[in-house]
User: Fold this.
Amino acid sequence: MTDDSKARPPRRASTRLLHAGREKSITGQFVNPPVVHASTVLFPTVEDMHKGRLRYNYGRLGTPTSEALELAVNELEGADGSVLCPSGLAAATIALLSVLSAGDHVLVTDSVYGPVRRLMDGLLHRFGVEATYYEPSVGAGIAALFRPNTRAVYTESPGSLTFEMQDVPAIAAVAHERNALVLFDNTWATPLHFRAFDHGVDVSIIAGTKYLGGHADVMLGTVSARGARVGPLKQTHRDMGMHVGPDDMYLALRGIRTLPIRMEHHVRSALAIATWLQGRPEVARVLYPALPGDAGHALWKRDMTGGSGLFGVVMRGWSEAQAMRFVDSLELFGIGASWGGYESLATVPQLAGIRTVRPWHAEGALVRLHIGLEDPADLMADLESGLAAAAA
Assistant:
């Protein structure tokens, strides 16, 4: 190490993500790693095969493409090890299976992503894992819900659809006192804006389908861990035969290179539009923790360094039918289940039964918006036209 390198300040995220996974042993003379379509790997001798002497042994177990993406995700998360899964839900499943066994109990936020709730109440319940849901605002009060067999807490902040912030450090402190692990869905803020491991999280989950890919053309999930949790995570991933196609891995790796720039635009536009909507007479509340006045703003300001392009809008006195007319009339907002791509989206979530601890009550129908990379002035004009159409 030279004296110059010792004095060099830490590199910032945009610089680190441009260079992560680009080791010469992976890329050779090229800027980008090769997109390796492979199943069989050939060995020089049978002994080499038996002893696994090659860097790559089988397509499902790793290629230059997967290694490059794993290294980039490690850099993004600040993790010691990461695995790649074919969807965000698959990533959540692998994360849970890596820490839970039959007879275990897990605490789950009541604002959890709907498919994860179905996983808890269906497959994991059948396999002998019991889940208890907790109020997202519980904080250190979660201690009252622990049992002798509680092995993990599954968190997501802000919450899916309704965007409640959680006191993750307080929850983690309680969990660690009781030898339980904390799993966290970090899709909304991404590790650019929430450093999960620095706040007590043990296993971090990202639906890479969203911002990591960034172009609405990738299905991907990632799970990352540090220290002793890496081994069980990778073993579970291997035992379950999880694998991502090389083209999706390449597209996600390309998306990571531009993630900081895209997120900056998403957040700037979302904050401008959320602020504008907050002043509209048709709007009762905007559910966006980065917005001053939001119920979770203090926690967001304490723990996160930025926001996201995704938020909810509670319409004042609107029925679901009126909200549907509003969304149907929009021209620049697509109607789709995902988010995190370059395009703006609008949906009317079906909220019946999404809570089991405390029912969701609001002043009117809920509209969820994802603010894409279009000019925010054009998006606001489109939303204004939609509001007028809904009123008519």
Notes: Residues 249 and 322 are 41 Å apart (CA to CA). The first strand starts at residue 81 and ends at 85.
